[in-house]
Amino acid sequence: MANIKVKVKNGAFPIRYKGERYLVGEELTIDEKHLNESMMERLEEPKKAAQSSKTSESE
Questions:
Q1: Are 30 and 6 in contact (CB under 8 A)?
Q2: Tens-digit pLDDT profile for the chain (59 aa)?
Q3: Distance from CA of residue 43 to its chain's centroid?
Q4: Cβ atoms of residues 4 and 28 within 8 Å
Q5: Compositional bias (Polar residues) at which positions (predicted)?
Q6: Beta carbons of 45 and 3 less than 8 angstroms apart
Q7: Using CA atoms in the order 26, 8, 1, 54, what is the torsion angle rounded to 10 degrees?
């Protein structure tokens, strides 16, 4: 899974992630599978893993 940047939404309870507490308006980077859209606003799309293209230039 990819990491994404999120912000805690207004009206959401404090969020705990990896032992840290985040309040309304704070930003954090989480694993996409932990995204809770009712409590978090997505700020950044996940970074796509760079796919290596195999080309044979030796021939």
A1: yes
A2: 689 999 999 999 899 999 999 999 999 999 999 999 999 999 977 666 545 455 555 54
A3: 8
A4: no
A5: 50-59
A6: no
A7: -60
